[in-house]
Amino acid sequence: MQWSCSEVKENCPICGAESELHFLPYEIPFFGEIMIFTAVCSSCGYRSTDVKVMSEEKMRRCEMVISSAEDLNAIVVRSSLGTIEIPELGVSVEPKRGEAFISTVEGVLKRVEDVVKMLSRDVEGARKKRAEDVLNRIAEIKSGEASMTLIIDDPAGNSAIISDKVKTFL
Ligand SMILES: [Zn+2]
């Protein structure tokens, strides 16, 4: 595949109109280059983002124990095929086409926090209690009082957690 141009035309997966696909190389220190794809359809407004790890070594599974404030700064690359799991929180974030992101561990926790907060508004009793437990646990993890394991499974190997502490599986 050629990476020399930075824009191509492709058909929108939603409305079929010709839309633009932009790609931008992004260099992560001590890791290598990743490519960020953004498709924007001017016809229906559909937007999607995906990422691709350009290195030879593709990791299908990454695991990292988050146990300090410093660990929260590790960069997380999630392609649109990556599933995020945090077993200690009972949380699993399923992949969704066009919803890739580059963030930090803290950013991932923020996303989980926002979703749990939103869901907890409409529930009562045991489910409310469980949501509150998860939010308390997230607060403890952020302050370094509790630890968690961040796991990303990606069959295409385009997701990564960038840290010395990460365990990877080919
Ligand atoms: Zn469209």
Brief overview:
The longest helix is centred in the last third of the chain and has 18 residues. The strands form three sheets. A five-stranded antiparallel beta sheet has the order 8-7-10-5-12, with no helix packed on it. It has a four-stranded antiparallel beta sheet with strand order 1-2-3-4, with no helix packed on it.
Walk me through this protein's architecture:
There is one protein chain. This protein has 2 helices and 12 strands; from the N terminus they run E-E-E-E-E-E-E-E-E-H-H-E-E-E. The protein is α+β, with helices and mostly antiparallel strands and 170 residues long. The chain has a single domain, classed as Jelly Rolls (Sandwich), CATH 2.60.120. The strands form 3 sheets. It has a 5-stranded antiparallel β-sheet with strand order 8-7-10-5-12, with no helix packed on it. It has a 4-stranded antiparallel β-sheet with strand order 1-2-3-4, with no helix packed on it. Strand 2 (18-28) and strand 3 form a beta hairpin. It is globular and about 50 Å long. The two termini are 23 Å apart. It binds zinc ion (ZN). Zinc ion binds next to loops. Zinc ion (ZN) binds next to loops.
